[in-house]
C-alpha cells in the first residue's frame, strides 16, 4: 500500500508528479495570469487521459479537490491545497482534412492548431490571442475575431473526451453522453477534466482585417460613430473598439507608446474592397494616428487585437449590453475616458449578434446569445494595486453601464467575481438549473470546485 498520495501518484502516473519545494513545481504551477498564484498540494503533469483518470481517482480517495490548468489564461482562483492537473504535456493534434476536423489534446494552444491546419487550407475558430489554450476557451463558449460570421467556438465542437468526478474517461458527443456534451460546451468548469476535443475546421486561409488607432482627443467622436456604424455591418464583419492606456515601451510604435488611444478592430470574411467600403465611415470620423488594415493570412489573426503575449497580472470584469446608446458612451467615457486617471489597461466593447445569436445545430449551454455587445474592463498590470485600486476601477466601468446591461455575463469574460449569485449571471435560469443538476451527476463529490464553476442548487 502507498503511504501518501504522492507515493500513490508516482506508482500510477506516467507524467511527472511534483510537490512544493521540488524542482519544476513553481514553473508547472505558474500560468499566464500572474495575479493568481497556485499553491497546490501536489501537481500531476499529465501525459494522457490515463494519467488524468488516475489523478482524479486518487484525489477523491485522499480527500483533495482537483484543479486543472493548461496555459493559465483563465485563472481566477488559486488552487491552494488541491491536486493540480497540468495538461501542458498533452500536445497531439490530428487533422482530418477530408472531414475538416481536428482532434486536439488538452495542452494545445490555438497557434499550434492553426499551424497544423494551415497546410490543408483550413483554420480553427480561435480567439483573438493564439497563445490561449484551446480547451478552456472553448468550454467557456469562445468569442474570436470572426465570431459574428461563424458563432462561438463551442458551436463547432464534434466530440469531447473528459474524465468525470468518478475517474472515468468518457466520450461526450451527440450520440454518447449527450447531456454531458451539452453541458461542457458553454458550462465552463465543474464537470470534469477534458483530455481532448474534436472541432470543426473552416476552409479559410485569409481574411481582411486589422486595426485603426485614434488619438485620445478623438475618443468621444470614435465611440459615438462606432455605436451607429456597428448596426450597419453584415455578419461577414466582426468588430470591437477598445480604450487603451499603453505603457511607455520601446517595442511599441512612437504613436502608441505611453499614450491613451482608441483601437478599432475589424475582421471581414470576404473581399478587401467590400471591407474597405464598410470601413470608410470610420476612417472619415477622425484621422488615425496609426493604421494597419489589409489582407491577412489566417496565421496572422493575432495582429487584429494585438493582445499581450507574455504573462502579466490580470484583473478583469465583463458585462453584456442589450444596446449601446449615446448615453452608454457618455457613461463609459466618464468612467474610463482619457480625462480619467484610472488604473485601467483596456476597456473594450465587442459587437455581438450575427451567428453568435443563433443556437447551433447541436444545442449547447453557451449563455449571452441575447446580447448586442459585450463590455470588458481589464485593470492595469500593477502588482501593488491588484487588491485595491485596480478592482475598484474595473468595477466602476461595468457598473457605469448597468442601465444598459442585460444582467448577464459571458463566462470567459466574467472575471474574478466568484460568489454564486455572480457566477449564475452567466447563464439563463433554465440553462443554469440544468447545469446544476448535471454537476450533481458528474461530480457529486464536488472535486472540481475552482474557478468558473456552476453553483449547485440550494
Describe this structure in words.
- With 458 residues, the protein is an alpha+beta fold.
- Helices cover 27% and strands 22% of the residues.
- It contains 14 helices and 16 strands.
- The chain has helices at 5-12, 25-29, 49-61, 110-117, 134-139, 147-150, 178-187, 219-229, 272-283, 302-305, 326-336, 389-400, 420-423, 429-442, and strands at 16-18, 42-45, 66-69, 83-86, 93-96, 101-105, 157-163, 169-172, 193-200, 206-215, 237-245, 260-268, 290-297, 316-321, 344-351, 373-379.
- The strands form three sheets. The protein has a seven-stranded antiparallel beta sheet. The chain has a five-stranded antiparallel beta sheet with strand order 5-6-9-7-8.
- A hairpin with a 4-residue loop joins strand 5 and strand 6.
- The radius of gyration is 22 Å and the shape is globular.
Secondary-structure map with pairings?
Elements: H1 5-12, E1 16-18, H2 25-29, E2 42-45, H3 49-61, E3 66-69, E4 83-86, E5 93-96, E6 101-105, H4 110-117, H5 134-139, H6 147-150, E7 157-163, E8 169-172, H7 178-187, E9 193-200, E10 206-215, H8 219-229, E11 237-245, E12 260-268, H9 272-283, E13 290-297, H10 302-305, E14 316-321, H11 326-336, E15 344-351, E16 373-379, H12 389-400, H13 420-423, H14 429-442
Parallel strand pairs: 2-4, 3-4
Antiparallel strand pairs: 1-2, 5-6, 6-9, 7-8, 7-9, 10-12, 10-13, 11-12, 11-15, 14-16, 15-16
Helix pairs in contact: 1-3, 7-14, 8-11, 11-12
